[in-house]
Amino acid sequence: MYNHTELKDLVEKAITNLSYNTEAEKLIEPVKYILSIGGKRLRPVLTLMACNLFNDKIDDAIMPAAGIEVFHNFTLVHDDIMDQAPVRRSFPTVHYKWNVNQAVLSGDVMAFIANECFLQTPPRCLLNVFRVFNKAAMEVCVGQQLDMDFEKASIITEKEYLRMIELKTSVLLAASVKIGAIIGGAKDKDSDLLYEFGRNLGLAFQIQDDLLDIYGDAKVFGKIPGGDIISNKKTFLLVKAFELATGEQLKMLQEQFSEMEFDPEVKVKKVVDLYDHLDIRKATENLANDFIKTSFDLLDKIDVDRERKNELESVVSSLIGRDK
Questions:
Q1: Contacts of 38 (CB under 8 A, 6+ apart)
Q2: Where are the alpha helices (DSSP H) in 120-246?
Q3: pLDDT per residue over 37-63, tens digit each?
Q4: Low pLDDT (below 50) residues in the chain
Q5: What are phi and psi of 91, to 5 degrees?
Q6: Per DSSP, what are the bridge partners of residue 87?
Q7: CA–CA separation, 51 vs 191, rounded Å?
Q8: Structural domain boundaries of the chain?
Q9: Residues 6 or more apart from 289 whose CB is under 8 A from it?
Q10: What residues pair up with 91 in beta bridges, in sequence order?
Q11: Strand, helix or coil at 188?
């Protein structure tokens, strides 16, 4: 069995050694840049871990895992353009470092580089793997569209929000572990269980991320709390607050998220005070914990020896801040 560090090293090596085969170096410079500025490599590492659950030989899963990471970074390049974000992982975003046109084109080519990685999947499971990936890729785009639609909506329901983050965030993580399982030779039942494991985990990650924007330690996360409030971003906390607020509370919330000019500190304090009054933090933590519990329950049902799950459980537990 491989450990997390060994798998991340394999992913980094595969990404560093990608062959681009193009005469247009300017097209590839932004690709190399975005892939070089780090990140947890969570999705490709989980792909390899899922494969390793069922098979000690994981070589066949390395290039598809790299493909997932390339595709993930492609979505980040385009998301940053749509969000007009200047910084990604403490580095300038691609469209800021170059320009929007270059970012669009270099982002586009990353989707096809990801396809090339997937074409190195063994023939015995190529079609199955590619269908899982392609479905997730299209769903990510649907999730992004819903996110854009929700920016213009005054109120969205909890169900609508959860569906949006499921598509935008969770399905690619779910596909990552399912793809690893398929390549590793898992039975259909086990690969499906892993998909649901990843889907629930992805939902928990995003809900926790929403929570940390307000209640996280600024020294640890390197950003000022309340950024989502200042930018009027729809988060689970905001959706829940609109659901629970009544009377003057609801009026205040509507005013804070409709005013064009405001003092950021005052806005954050008013909204957080309301969150605290409505016990939004507890509701958010409870939902994240429900998804986490479901994901671990699903992992328990997978038909492999207990010890083969230890590394995956350990990594996931550390990411969600849970003691194993």
A1: 89
A2: 126-152, 158-165, 171-183, 188-215, 218-221, 227-230, 236-244
A3: 978 899 999 999 999 999 999 999 999
A4: 323-324
A5: -120, 155
A6: 92
A7: 10
A8: 4-218+286-320
A9: 204
A10: 88
A11: helix
